[in-house]
Design brief:
two-stranded antiparallel ribbon; alpha+beta; 183 residues
Length: 183
């Protein structure tokens, strides 16, 4: 992140408590950065692309060995995912005792059910300020995935879960097509 000129403002490192049924990973944290100096006065749309592309680059760096798993990289948003009973996951992260602050905190403790466990396949799904916690059989997954991937937008990728396309459809409908969000 320093090489990309982001300035670290704060890092949250949860106090992990061993909890039966949750296999801990090596390291957990959420980092809060200020934009690189040359990006401070750019438009919000330009900043969103910088943040998304940074998230995708970090994800790619860690994908092969799961050394980096990143779900969101966006102002005032934290996404926590781990597999286990939600109350036990909260205890595991010490959320009941630790002060974790952000405007939006998404958390999920349920594993994906269709394939081997992959945190990228677990809810919630996030892209540029849009998040969904959707579940259910998505029989149109393949054509929707193919349509989104054909749009040439780098954030429309991954698709470890058929539910992920719901988040990207929401993003595409509002951000790209300009449809209003009435609710």
């Amino acid at each position: 992140m320093e090489e990309r000129s982001f300035k670290l403002l704060h890092r949250w490192r949860p106090k992990i408590k061993p909890v039966k049924g949750i296999v801990p990973r090596d390291f957990y944290f959420a980092a809060f950065y200020d934009y690189p100096e040359e990006w401070k006065y750019k438009s919000f749309e330009e900043k969103e692309m910088l943040l998304m592309n940074t998230r995708l680059a970090l994800r790619k760096m860690g994908e092969s060995d799961e050394s980096i798993i990143i779900f969101s990289f966006y102002p005032d948003v934290i996404t926590l995912k781990e597999v286990g009973d939600p109350l036990k996951v909260a205890e595991f992260f010490g959320i009941d005792k630790d002060i974790l602050k952000a405007k939006i905190i998404f958390a999920q403790g349920r594993q994906n059910t269709n394939y081997q466990i992959c945190l990228y396949a677990c809810h919630p799904f996030f892209i540029q300020g849009y998040c969904t916690m959707t579940n259910g059989e998505n029989t149109a997954f393949v054509p929707i995935r193919e349509f989104l991937m054909s749009r040439g937008f780098p954030g429309y990728m991954g698709y470890n879960s058929d539910s992920e396309v719901f988040c990207h459809i929401l993003h595409y409908s509002h951000k790209k097509l300009g449809f209003p969000l009435s609710y």
